[in-house]
């Protein structure tokens, strides 16, 4: 294969079939749920990340927060500098198994949910994120 042939392939090409593990992205920065919103925004800016995986004291994934969500919380009337990620997380959000197919993952996620969904193992540890767009 020539260099030209290699360059013609899309870097973002992903298989349409297979498991979530085949198409997930890296989890990105993981932070603790007792971190303040302001510190989380600073971590996000320093890491140049659009989301953070939020973990509990046992390192289990409890949520995924985006820059837009944190900014909205910070700009809301209920914001204080002591507001922590655990105060804004919603542990009812869907998580996806790495062995699920992409179709199964999309069916498990409510229609209103867009963007990255955490991929977790049987112990709740974040393995990556699956970007969903509809």
UniProtKB/TrEMBL annotation:
Keywords: CBS domain. InterPro entries: CBS_dom, CBS_dom_sf, Diverse_CBS-Domain. Gene3D superfamilies: CBS-domain. Residues 20-70 form the CBS domain. SUPFAM superfamilies: CBS-domain pair. This is CBS domain-containing protein. It comes from Streptomyces ardesiacus. The lineage of its organism: Bacteria, Bacillati, Actinomycetota, Actinomycetes, Kitasatosporales.
